[in-house]
Specification:
The chain has about 375 residues and is α/β, with parallel strands linked by helices. It folds into two domains: about 220 residues, FAD/NAD(P)-binding domain; about 140 residues, D-Amino Acid Oxidase, subunit A, domain 2 (D-Amino Acid Oxidase, Chain A, domain 2, 2-Layer Sandwich). The structure holds flavin-adenine dinucleotide (FAD). Flavin-adenine dinucleotide (FAD) binds next to helix 1, helix 2, strand 3, strand 12 and strand 16.
Length: about 375
């Protein structure tokens, strides 16, 4: 299989697990080292330090969506509020604070952009299949994804989670205890969380419930303050469109990140071989870059320093999946945030730890 090339991201993930042998048994196993799994494992240890917790990541922390995300922290879910969901952004802020994660979280609000009914004071007026303007302002903001992945992993490590990279779970047997098969070893666990998102859909039983797609982003060269102000981005508010064609973006220092577009697959395994320099992904980048250059005169000759993409797990009804594993009452599955997971992953990751500890129930969002 050709090696994957998902491009270069404008941040780095500093934290790596120290190599150590897999234990024979733990109280809790967490599978997947993205925002969800990292937050859940750290929260488990924070609430119940007497329990042993192992986090198993197939590659490196942040290898999935979390390390490749756009990093817009949004309220609610992809379908809005859900029964009992609570305040995602304030929960997210508290969890990051309690885990001492330096996230560079800023919550100035987010502009929803559209091609009709602009806000009277819309600072944004761009050319993009009509005039694209701010039509509404909603709560939210941005994080630095590299810092959040690294900070959550460091918090988990500090709290005593046993962290494993290059430890992909190939299959598991439901029973008491659960048996997780990792390369040539088997880890026994009383309870487990599967936070594998767009990968391993057979492992979570999501083959009929979710689609694994690939979505892309680019970062511009640094732009001047005057150009940024002329574009209407002086307030530092990220944005996304509420009509089509879709476009989202945010500032990262003096750079602007934009993203749009999906590559579909016959099966999630194909994503491992995707090369952003070839085929459909390369065409998406060419279209996105030409579109950005036409948005505003300040961007007409802009160059791009970073091009990357990552997986996105879109569920049939666009709601997150947060429930018991179909094969075991001792395992929980959580993910499928449908492109809206930056804040939800951590917020619900902490909630899932409380479920595994018997301190809280699961929601009912089917
Ligand atoms: C380009 C892009 C832009 C995005 N922009 C935004 C945004 O601005 N705002 C927003 O809210 N959301 C956004 N998202 C979505 C958001 O990033 C995700 O919802 C979130 O990161 C999901 O986190 P996660 O931990 O559930 O999944 P992931 O980060 O995908 O983590 C899953 C982990 O599980 C590991 N794994 C898989 N299988 C196994 C196995 N068998 N054994 C062990 N480990 C395994 C993977 O290697 C991976 O590290 C974006 C996504 C992309 C790709």
């Amino acid at each position: 299989m050709p090696a994957k090339n998902w491009g270069n991201r404008p941040w780095t993930i500093e934290f790596h697990a120290k190599p150590q042998p897999l234990p024979r048994a733990v109280d809790f196993a967490v599978v997947g080292g993205g925002f969800t799994g990292l937050a859940a494992s750290a929260w488990l240890k924070r609430l119940a330090p007497e329990n042993s917790v192992a986090l198993l990541e197939a590659g490196h922390f942040g290898d999935g969506a979390s390390g490749h995300t756009g990093g817009m922290a949004l309220a609610e879910s992809a379908v809005g509020d859900l029964p009992g969901l609570g305040d995602v952004l304030s929960g997210y802020t508290k969890i990051l604070r309690q885990l001492n994660v330096n996230s560079e979280l800023q919550l100035p609000g987010v502009y929803e952009l559209g091609r009709s009914k602009p806000l009277p004071h819309s600072p944004i007026r761009w050319k993009d299949s009509g005039e694209l303007c701010a039509v509404k302002e909603v709560p939210g903001g941005t994080i630095n994804p590299g810092k959040v992945v690294s900070g959550l992993a460091a918090a988990a490590d500090r709290l005593g989670v046993q962290l494993f990279e290059n430890a992909g779970v190939e299959s598991f047997d439901a029973g008491e205890p659960l048996r997780l098969h990792v390369a040539r070893s088997t880890l026994l666990a009383k309870k487990a969380l599967f936070a594998t998102n767009a990968f391993g859909l057979e492992l979570t039983g999501w083959t009929q419930r979710a689609e694994a797609c690939f979505t892309i982003a680019v970062a511009t060269k640094e732009i001047s303050d005057s150009a940024r102000n002329a574009m209407g981005l002086g307030e530092g508010k990220p944005f996304y469109t509420v009509d089509l064609p879709y476009l989202w973006g945010r500032l990262l220092g003096k750079q602007i990140i934009f993203g749009s577009g999906l590559v579909h697959f016959a099966g999630w395994h194909e994503m491992h071989a995707l090369d952003i320099a070839q085929g459909e992904a390369a065409e998406l980048f060419a279209r996105l870059e030409s579109r950005i250059r036409s948005l505003h005169p300040a961007l007409c000759e802009i160059e791009f320093t970073h091009r990357w993409g990552g997986p996105i797990c879109i569920t049939r009804d666009w709601r997150p999946v947060f429930e018991l594993h179909p094969k075991s009452p001792h395992a929980v599955v959580l993910g499928g945030f449908s492109g809206h997971g930056v804040a939800q992953s951590v917020y619900l990751g902490a909630w899932s730890a409380e479920v595994l500890l018997g301190k809280r129930g699961l929601p009912s969002w089917k």
